[in-house]
Design a protein that fits this description.
Elements lengths: L7 E4 L3 H11 L5 E5 L11 E6 L7 H13 L6 E4 L2 H9 L1 H4 L4 E2 L4 H8 L1 H10 L7 E2 L4 H5 L7 E5 L3 H7 L4 E3 L2 H12 L7 E5 L6 E9 L2 E14 L6 E6 L7 H11 L3 E10 L4 E8 L6 H6 L4 H9 L14 E3 L1 H13 L5 H9 L3 E3 L8 H21 L1
Parallel strand pairs: 1-2, 1-4, 2-3, 4-5, 15-16
Antiparallel strand pairs: 6-9, 7-8, 7-9, 10-11, 10-13, 11-12, 12-15, 13-14
């Protein structure tokens, strides 16, 4: 680069952050990471500095820690870049304080909250004619039992990270009213009832996403992808196998919801396709790096590099994707494949063929930067041993 090259401080070190670190590191940008649990990006040769924070990356104490780093560790002037939801919320909520010592890619909370909170997101979707699954916000169990709902259904919080941090699930499933009431009762022990939602499950199996770079609500570049597998296979915590294909009818509703929310930066818009009316239904909007964003890089849309330039006031031209590549996160796709085979959704042969039928990029493994794969496996082994010890 011929310009001054500000450093980047990534909040989070999982495979999403790794993709950002590799993209920017290859361009000569100095990258540092902060995390409470060292994960794949922590071990990358493209990361020059590492800061360990021992608590959840959320709240005043974490923001104070970031401000202290700016004063004492030379991170002032860096682009502060959240790569996960809790850090995104922390930066957005304390945008004013953090925007002094840092350059922010995150917008203030009054913008971000409308994507972060699914009840507000659904309201915004209704305003611009973007469809979503039928949803209710009951305040108690008797209200749940009065809902005119078709099953199957799910109970989930408006801000999904709350349930994930407690029980490792985005949603609780129910196939009848008794199960729905039980699921609501369990969720209400973890999340305030005012933050819970009940949603009908769209019967379609196809899920897709639009990955985009936006500026002031306007999409600059975008591509579509089919999210073929996720883990767990019912209401997964993340995609495990994604195919870069043109998915008709998704770019335009994605543009409408991004414009309505006024988002800037990297944005993923998730849909499920309803076989009853052939319409995509909005599931989620992620205004941060998403799991499969390195697939976009393989297709010619290097969103981290584009976002870096945009954040510095140097936006580039719109870029068209090259479709056909796939992305796999083997650490979760193997168990997703096993679950799919056991459920009768996939044969072993079809699963193996899906991995070798064309060009595929991995979420972590790269011969040019091999240590993150070892770190990824080590963290997975530690988590598994802790889970087994807890169950013993």
């Amino acid at each position: 680069m011929t310009h001054h090259v500000p450093a980047v401080l990534l909040l989070g070190s999982d495979f999403k952050a790794l993709g950002v670190a590799r993209s920017l590191g290859r361009r000569g940008v100095s990258v540092a990471v902060v995390d409470s649990l060292p994960r794949s990006a922590w071990f990358s040769r493209h990361v020059s500095r590492r800061f360990h924070w021992r608590e959840p990356m959320l709240g005043t104490a974490f923001v104070d820690f970031l401000l202290d780093l700016a004063r004492t560790s030379g991170t002032a002037g860096s682009l502060l870049w959240p790569a996960q939801d809790d850090a995104l919320e922390a930066v957005a909520r304390d945008w004013r304080r953090l925007s002094g010592p840092y350059r922010l890619v995150t917008q203030p909370w009054d913008v971000i909250r409308h994507a972060h909170d699914k009840s507000l997101l659904n309201d915004a979707a209704d305003q611009v004619g973007v469809q979503h699954p039928r949803t209710w916000y009951p305040l108690d169990e008797p209200s749940v039992r009065m809902l005119p709902i078709r099953f199957p259904a799910i109970v989930k919080p408006a801000i999904s990270v709350r349930l994930q941090q407690s029980i490792g699930r985005k949603a609780l499933a129910a196939k009848d009213m008794n199960e729905l009431a039980q699921a609501y009762r369990l969720a209400a022990r973890i999340v305030s009832t005012g933050d819970l939602m009940v949603q009908e499950v769209v019967s379609g199996e196809m899920q897709s996403s639009v990955g985009a770079l936006a500026d002031g609500g306007e999409v600059m570049s975008a591509m579509t992808a089919r999210r073929t597998r996720q883990y767990p296979i019912d209401y997964g915590l993340g995609s495990s196998f994604v195919e870069a294909v043109e998915v008709a009818g998704t770019i335009e509703p994605a543009r409408r919801i991004i414009r309505r929310l006024g988002l800037s930066g990297m944005v993923e818009v998730e849909f499920i396709h309803d076989p009853d009316d052939a319409e995509p239904k909005l599931l989620d909007v992620n205004p941060r790096p998403w799991g499969w964003h390195t697939l976009c890089i393989a297709c010619g849309l290097d969103f981290p590099a584009m976002e870096y330039e945009r954040a510095l006031g140097r936006p580039g031209p719109s870029v068209e994707p090259r479709y056909g590549t796939r992305w796999v996160r083997m650490l979760t796709d193997l168990p997703a494949g096993v679950q799919s085979i056991r459920a009768g959704q996939l044969t072993p042969r079809a699963y193996v063929r899906s991995l070798f039928a064309g060009k595929t990029v991995g979420s972590v493994f790269d011969l040019r930067d091999p240590l993150p794969a070892a770190g990824d496996l080590a963290v997975a082994a530690i988590r598994l041993s802790q889970r087994l010890a807890g169950a013993a």
